[in-house]
Amino acid sequence: MNHHTSPIKYDADQPLGTVSLSAQQMAELDRYFTNVTFFERDHWPHKLSGHNRTVTVKSTAKKLSDFLLEPALHQAIAHHLPSPATVITARRASLPESLSRTGYKFVALRPRLFPHLENKVNHRELLSARMPYPDFAIYDRAALTPGDFPRLADDRDTFVLQDEQLSSGVGTFVIREPADLGRALSVLRIHSKATRVVVSNYISGARERSVQAVVTSHGTFVGPLSKQIIRDPQLTTVGLPGSRLFCGGEIDPADPCRSAYPEIKHLSEVVGDMLRTQGYRGIFGLDFLVKDSGQIYFLELNARPTSMTPLLTQLERRDQDIPFYLLNLLEWAEMPYSISGTFSDLPQAGSMLALHPPNHKSVDLHAVLPGIYKWDATAKQVSFVRPGYRLDEVGQNEFLLEHEGAQGTVYQPGERLLNLYFTECSLNTDDSVKERCREIVAAVYALLT
Fold first, then answer.
1. How high is the pLDDT of residue 113?
2. Smallest Cα–Cα separation from 296: which of 120, 123, 134, 118?
3. I need a labelling partner for 33 at 20 to 30 A (CA). Which of 43, 116, 431, 448 fits?
4. What does the alpha-carbon distance between residue 232 and residue 245 come to, in Å, rounded to a whole number?
5. Is the pLDDT of residue 168 over 90?
6. What burial letters (b/e) apply to 161-189, b meaning 16+ CB within 10 Å?
């Protein structure tokens, strides 16, 4: 059995195909496997380095779901990919009998969805006896009005109201007065089909931290502490209803909350055990609050790869760090593998910033190529240097720019536009964004005009 990532041993030479994955997903597969064929509707803007190849399939399909059903794609797979082989897709699809009986199978990166596990009411019901949630109560949203503020506040100056299902900060509100409650209920009536809300204590003087973990047949593996950037007014349109509020994150080996990591790791393993009993395999994310006293509160479960997963995989060091993307794929595709040895507990520093369309305008990224850019601190300008998809290809005063969607996507106000990756921390000690990074963001926005 060949292997590219020790201590994980797996067959790195097995034939694999992919259909319309993102540039980063393609680069990750290219890193872990030696015999991958990429099937695309259109030429990718830059050829990935290495030995793998791209096959362009003539297609009129605008949606991936339609492309997966096209006979032209099935013919290309049979012609270019030796069987038996696994074809990896971003969405679930069924192979025609002519391919499945000759040894091919389609595997989605997320073949099953687990929204019931992410539901903020459901996971509290499953875990409240074992996890340190802030005190909470559950309410029927339809029965609430701004006039219920005194009852919900229950002598508190401030409380938190969360939709049971919405994520990315869209359904979370800090409530200080009846008007705040009225605005929150109005937003949820428009953007949520859920029926319940969680009302919980507002924890002041705490730092928010998250971890990525992965449930496998060999146990639950927990990654390092990370900081998330939420609601940054330079990076997203905070006042736009429905706008994505996740703005990036950072992994810092000198994180001031690192003394809380052993307990956070233990709590993450508790959640991993619960997920395994529910039939879940693969990456999941957890959010916590850490007070200066060391008190830890559990906030949220995301039973899927999250917005922080790409940063973690970009910072992965061969043979040292947990290969989250690889383990996620090996589990979902049911590929045989073994694990011997341990992973490093000391992460590599790095950060990402997630940019959204500025000024409430739609944006087309044709003029901004993905790849490696250089920052000129004197001129306050950025310039494209070369194609690239990996952070370990970045040099001094350089950063990686990645489109959030496929080339040619038109992004609407509130949608995530692109991601910037750095080999250094982007946050000050108070978790605010450094001025140098703000200047880089401003220069990238200037490219759009």
1. 64
2. 134
3. 43
4. 8
5. no
6. bbbbbbbebbbbbebeebebbbebbebbe
What pLDDT, on the 0 to 100 scale, is given for residue 3?
47
Range in 40-54, 214-228, 332-346, 388-402 the model is least confident about? 40-54
pLDDT at 110 over 70: no
Rg (CA), the chain: 22
Where residue 15 falls among pLDDT bands split at 50, 70, 90?
Answer: very high
Closest CA to 10 of 320, 291, 329: 329
Task: Return the pLDDT at 43.
Answer: 46
How far apart, in whole angstroms, are the C-alpha atoms of residue 275 and residue 282? 10
d(CA 37, CA 190) in angstroms, rounded, equals 43
66 Cβ neighbours under 8 A, 6+ residues apart? none
Residues 6+ apart with CB under 8 A from 448: 358, 363, 365, 367, 368
Is there a cis peptide before residue 84, judged by omega within 30 degrees of 0? Answer: yes
In the chain, the amino acid numbered 152 is: L
Q: Which residues contact 343 (CB under 8 A, 6 or more apart)?
A: 7, 221, 320, 321, 322
Mean pLDDT rounded to a whole number for the chain: 89
Peptide bond into 358 cis (omega under 30): no
